[in-house]
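Name: Guanine deaminase
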Amino acid sequence: DVEQSVGIRGRILSFVRAPNGAGDEGSYVYLRDGMLVIRDGRVEAIGPASELEGTLPSGAPVTRYEHELIVPGFIDTHIHFPQTQVIASYGAQLLDWLTRYTFVEEQKYSDPGHCSRGATFFLDELLRNGTTTAVAYGSVHPQSVDAFFAESEKRGTCMVAGKVMMNRNAPPALTDTAETSYADSKALIERWHKRGRQRYCVTPRFAITSTQEQLEAAGALLREFPDVYMQTHLSENLDEIAYVLSLFPDAKNYTDVYDKVGLLGPRSFFGHCIHLAEEELQRLADSRSVAVFCPTSNLFIGSGLFDLANTADAKRPVRIGLGTDVGGGTSYSMLQTAAEAYKVMQLKGQNLPPISAFYMMTRGNAEALSMGAEIGSLEIGCFADFVVLDSKATPAMLHRMETIEDLIEEELFVLMTLGDDRAVRATYVQGQKVHDRQNSS
Ligand code: GUN
Ligand code: ZN
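Structure predicted for Guanine deaminase:
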């Protein structure tokens, strides 16, 4: 059955390329009275409502948002699905935090019932926050990834995820082996990769919890399935780095541990990348790998301040993603994540213009995933995954907005600084409303 076209009318913002600083109006399309025409889950047309209204078939339903702002669905390029009950755990830096909290909670995902309840909660929470695509770590248990993809498939979302591979320095109940991690990951790839909108991500947790043999198995999977993704953690915390170098005495540096086994590349996502040396940045840039900035986590776990300007330096630009890193991160909201990114950059003497932040959350993260033609913008042919934002959602926002006339960049800054899930009026996936703030608790 071919669906009939439907219209969404309101203020619409979508990026066409990365902004070159504040005020770069050529980087986005902003329609004050715009129309999105959606058919079969994708954008069929976008433009001024006055031009498109007449093209809709008579009787086609049009949903109108009077003062809200419609932007592409947010994309979170680093999050842990089994850490919904780890978020907000007190008083520890990375290695203690993993042992005291994370490795305890993740053991519960051996139970398929816990996995499916967790997946339901997690995807509800993402959509409540306007996040329509995420790059997620599962637990070591393949059933966690089955539950996650099954739930995503039900909702029609595009998700990227993988089973964590970890075979040492963790409780026995949370470890696999090089062989079983290879076989389980391979079976999950065959079951889920490119099934509808689901994509697989080979997921060695980090160098501390994998032997050389297991990292080699991860590299073998990438060679065998060249279009799957890869995610791991890199250079988050100083004690972590020292430990890695003691475990891999032959490596030139932390990045080299992954490089030696073939884990760098344009589909590889490295969480954190806070304390990298120049030669490591050079290798990430040369291999077109992605460094994922996770500001709420880096501040909360006390890991350090990501140097975005240096990492992305045009002399050897490393590609950048933005992620929440829940449960090390403290918010599911990409708006709050952008607010904390701004503050980290302030401490580094750098700028994060609001258009750059909104670009990163949408098209920037889509391009990091090489999915710019499918998600992250509202261009014709893209999936109609979008979020309807209310810049006046709270008393503080309403009050602040009284001073802003018609300046989209100022409004975006209010949205990211003061906004969170309360500013998400509705979320749509493939043109279907999957969250409405007025109908939710
Ligand atoms: N390094 C290894 N595992 C993790 C994790 O679960 N969270 C964070 N933030 N860092 C990690
Ligand atoms: Zn993480």
